[in-house]
Amino acid sequence: MPTISMFYGIVICLYFFDDERHKLPHIHAKYQGKGASFSILDGSLLAGEIPQAKSRLVQAWIEIHRDSLLANWELAVNGLPPFAIEPLR
Fold it and tell me: In the chain, fewer beta carbons within 10 Å around the N or the C end?
């Protein structure tokens, strides 16, 4: 599970070949032992939970980096390593 970014205690990951469960481009966010999946297309919460304030940060980060995230998604579902993306500052 490659980590592609970290900011404000949140770790953002993409899994290799992870297009079967949700069927749409998504990322995984982890924060203090909790995890959630977010759609890359619209930032919506797909599964799991992290604190609401952290969810908003993840959604803002997705909005800023959507094109890079979609490129990374294509790499990851094809078993190729995704590249790092700038953290939210």
Answer: C
